[in-house]
Specification:
By secondary structure, the protein is of the alpha/beta class. Helix content is 38%, strand content 15%. It has an 8-stranded parallel beta barrel with strand order 5-6-7-8-9-10-11-12, surrounded by 5 helices. It is elongated, with a radius of gyration of 28 Å. The two termini are 36 Å apart.
Length: 473
């Protein structure tokens, strides 16, 4: 049976909705569009739908605008069919129906993230545990205790054991053989890094060794160490070392490729800090590119640091990137269209509406509510009386005469205009009353912190305020 979808809308959006649905040209379902007698689709509520929708027109499910409020489960029962919330912006309907961005489960990955606490000797066990919790929340699989040259680490064993007791997988990273022994004896699961001259430590402890060349670029020494452990049936991970740009970066990428060619089945690690920490550029793109190299070479272990403030989100970025790369590789596809969490400063489709389309909608508005939209031309602010276009909020605001004696509403419009200006300048998606989407750049603890927007909007002067005042319009 072909799915028949009833799309509910309001007067202002009906024309645009028809245009978008005609562009989808779906074969797997049929549809009808119904204006249920409200001018602004965002003011629709489930109670209103149940009252006004007397004919469901043979639909198998009903799709409503993303800002529709109310009890969807109860409304579905009363209507006798599923009532579903669509996207906030109707221009996102093609992706909603699978005509654009992929809808893919990103729960799968095959890369293990080692997150290093680089100054572990200088902080206490409680602080180590606190940082470990943050790394794990962001996606880390292994907590790496970084030792420092010529810096005592008297609480190394205590730190390892406290992390293990808390359920963490632990690695110890040091250039000092004795610290590696101490970490291994304390129960660390991995040791970074052993080389040919210190390989005997692998015989003394159960920890899995991560092997590196004896000296920079000495791949023969790394090969000998790998062959030696392989002959004994001992598990290991090899790291040929990623060098910084202008200090051997390209050659170090070539070494990883050669290592994989020589050892097709070996576990390999790449430490990315020499690129992300030592390159003054946003780390999202750097990490995504390195994860692409690692995905092609089947490098399944990654060590990252978060020392420089500009690299403070690397674990989150890498976690998202490994999921995208895994899905794209499994699909034999480009890593495009799976997830936008690593697009921070821009967006692929920042301006869903043209200036002409916004002018068409503005011409149909018959109420005093201010709408703010962004097109490639600039920031559009309009209601039934005013239509202002510009790029500078300080020039737009004086033209909005209704706000001059309303401080809370002026504050609200100032916030919205500032967001709209940022979106226009950077090429990001703007939706009124919604925060800009910064992807994985914003940590979870800073997301969703919204004050009482209604307190600043002014009764009846904005969409949400009107909904609060007239919930059953």
């Amino acid at each position: 049976m072909t799915d028949h979808i009833l799309l509910l809308t309001g007067k202002l959006a009906e024309k645009s909705l028809r245009r978008v649905m005609e562009s989808i040209a779906a074969r797997e379902f049929t549809y009808e569009i119904a204006n249920i007698g409200v001018s602004v689709a965002a003011l629709m509520t489930t109670d209103m739908i149940v009252r006004r929708l007397t004919d469901t027109r043979g639909a198998t499910r009903i799709l409503v605008p993303g800002l529709c409020s109310g009890d969807f489960e109860s409304a579905s029962e009363r209507l006798g069919m599923p009532l579903e919330r669509g996207p906030i912006d109707l221009k996102d309907l093609p992706a909603y129906f699978g005509r654009g961005a992929r809808r893919r489960d990103l729960s799968q990955y095959d890369m293990q993230i080692f997150a290093e606490i680089t100054d572990a000797p200088r902080i206490g066990v409680e602080e180590i545990l606190a940082r470990a919790a943050g790394h794990r929340r962001d996606g880390a699989d292994v907590i790496d205790l970084g030792c420092l040259p010529s810096t005592p680490f008297p609480h190394l064993e205590e730190a390892v054991q406290a992390l293990i007791a808390a359920g963490y997988t632990v690695s110890v990273d040091s250039i000092e053989p004795e610290e590696l022994r101490r970490g291994g004896r304390a129960g660390a699961h991995y040791l970074l890094s052993l080389k040919e001259s210190t390989l005997a430590i692998a015989e003394e402890v159960a920890a899995t060794p991560i092997l590196i060349p004896e000296s920079a670029g000495d791949m023969e020494s790394l090969h000998r160490a790998m062959d030696r452990l392989a002959a004994r049936g001992r598990r290991f991970i090899a790291d040929s070392i990623l060098d910084p740009i202008h200090f051997g970066f390209t050659e170090s990428i070539v070494r990883y490729h050669a290592l994989r060619q020589r050892y097709p089945q070996a576990g390999i690690m790449m430490g990315v800090g020499n690129l992300t920490e030592l390159t003054e550029a946003d780390t999202t793109g750097l990490n995504m590119l390195l994860l692409g190299v690692m995905s092609e070479l089947r490098i399944t272990h990654l060590l990252t640091t978060q020392v420089s403030p500009h690299a403070a989100a690397c674990v989150r970025e890498i976690d998202r990137a490994r999921r995208i790369m895994h899905a794209a590789r499994e699909d034999n596809s480009l890593p495009k269209g799976y997830d936008s969490g690593l697009i921070i400063g821009h967006e692929r489709k920042p301006f869903p509406y043209t200036a002409e389309e916004i002018r068409e909608m503005a011409a149909m508005v018959r109420d005093p509510s201010y709408r703010v939209q962004v097109s490639a031309e600039g920031i559009h602010v309009y209601n039934r009386e005013e239509r202002v276009l510009g790029g500078d909020p300080f020039k737009i605001f004086p033209e909005l005469g209704l706000l001059q004696n309303d401080a809370p509403h002026a504050f609200y419009m100032g916030v919205e205009l500032a967001r709209a200006q940022i979106a226009w300048q950077l090429g990001k998606r703007y939706v009124q009353d919604e925060e800009l989407n910064w992807g994985v750049a914003v940590p979870p603890e800073r997301q969703g912190e919204k004050g009482d927007v209604h307190a600043y909007k002014g009764e009846g002067s904005t969409l949400q305020a009107r909904r609060r005042k007239e919930p059953n319009q």
